[in-house]
Write a structure and sequence with these properties.
The chain is mainly alpha-helical. It is 77% helix and 0% strand. Helix 2 crosses helix 13 and helix 6 runs antiparallel to helix 11.
């Protein structure tokens, strides 16, 4: 089997295992070669992050405004509120559990007394970004809102083309090189004796994340059940085929046919389901938000960084917007969120690398949470819209 045909999760697992094994006996000079690659890749990522924000957020906001009907606006607002709920629910859940389960654990020291054990790059190339992350966010919001208001669409087409370029860069350059980046990171940690603490972190936090991945869809369907006056457990049971399919595909888009069929079983009208499910597959990512918030809090605890509510209020509101604009490629959500993680939480390159690794290691479970939640949104929209008020022609975006 060609390496390119192995799913991204499979390549990530292979990279981690090889990094752990080869790091046990690899000569220090080999570890420095991969440290050099990681340094160059990290600098390239820092350069691209503001461009990724502009390329994804600007056209997304512009498209939501142009020709946005009542149902589109309502669905987008509810999807955003659902994402915010997932983020804040995760924050308070992690704040109540992490202090006890992560007590006494911290990231390995990287001070001057341990520098001799840490592989360093042979050389580094500075790649300063064209603008900082916050400037990119403000620029994207201003231009995106402007594009949604003006009548012309010339500039919108320019940003759509720019989004295609950014998506190609993510899908053809960043994502394929991530396994090499992760391999080098785990090799470096193994050579320097840091890997045990990091693995223990992953295992404890992942258990919490798994539990939250079950609770968030359950709560969303309880809310949908109250609004629609239907049995939430029965509706959630009907969504299980979509959940299982998403575990295998790790793609909300690829799971759309199954998600749509499950939604119809929940007695959602066909026009509403046909409109809501494809749209939410793009803009509704509560599972992705859950993982980003949980791993961010965990790594902040490990690094001794203060975890303050005020900081995470800003962080979660911005992440909600980033999730609406996230590209539909493997790892797209974490790529769209990196700039916000750096600017709001102050993560360095090492913590960002660990965030990407942790996120991708359980990517399929986040996707399963996303598509299951899409079914709950469809039930709510069906109740709000009323099957008699909207025809298939009214609600499907051409």
């Amino acid at each position: 089997m060609k390496l390119s045909k192995i799913p991204l999760l499979g390549r990530i697992i292979i990279a981690i295992i090889l990094g752990l094994l080869i790091g046990q006996f690899a000569p220090f000079w080999l570890a420095r070669i991969f440290a050099t690659f990681n340094d160059l890749f990290g600098n390239l990522l820092s350069f691209l992050i503001p461009l990724i924000i502009v390329g994804l957020v600007t056209p997304a906001i512009g498209e939501l405004g142009k020709g946005a009907g009542r149902l589109l606006v309502i669905t987008t607002v509810i999807a955003y509120l659902s994402t915010l709920f997932s983020g804040f629910f995760t924050y308070f859940s992690c704040q109540s559990t992490f202090p006890s389960i992560l007590k006494g654990m911290s990231l390995p020291a990287t001070g001057s007394d341990t520098l001799n054990n840490i592989p360093t790059a042979y050389f580094s190339i500075n790649m300063p970004p064209l603008l900082d992350v916050m400037s990119a966010l403000i620029f994207s919001f201003c231009v995106g809102i402007g594009l949604s208001i003006i009548k012309g669409n010339t500039l919108q087409k320019v940003f759509v083309d720019f989004r295609d370029i950014i998506t190609r860069i993510i899908g053809s350059l960043i994502i394929p090189l991530l396994p090499v980046y992760i391999f080098g990171m785990f090799m470096s940690m193994t050579v320097s004796g840091q890997v045990y603490s990091v693995i223990m972190l992953f295992l404890k936090v992942i258990v919490v994340v798994f539990i939250l991945h079950i609770l968030v869809p359950l709560i969303l369907f309880v809310i949908a059940g109250v609004i629609s006056r239907r049995n939430p457990l029965e509706m959630l049971k009907n969504m299980l085929p979509a959940y299982a399919t998403a575990l295998g595909t790790s793609s909300s888009a690829a799971t759309i046919p199954v998600t749509l069929n499950c939604t119809l079983k929940n007695k959602v009208s066909e026009p509403i389901a046909s409109f809501t499910i494809p749209l939410c597959a793009t803009i509704h990512l509560p599972g992705s938000t859950l993982k980003i918030v949980a791993f961010s809090i965990a790594f902040m605890y490990f690094s001794g960084m203060p975890v303050e509510l005020a900081t995470f209020v800003e962080f979660i509101f911005l992440i909600g917007i980033a999730m609406i604009a996230a590209p539909g490629v493997p790892g797209g959500a974490i790529m769209a969120a990196i700039g916000i993680i750096q600017s709001v939480l102050g993560f360095n390159e090492e913590l960002i690398a660990m965030m990407i690794t942790a996120y991708l290691a359980i990517d399929s479970f986040g996707t399963a949470c996303n598509v299951t939640g899409d079914g709950a949104i469809a039930v709510i929209i069906d109740k709000i819209a009323g099957s008699k008020q909207f025809t298939k022609r009214n609600v499907i975006i051409e």
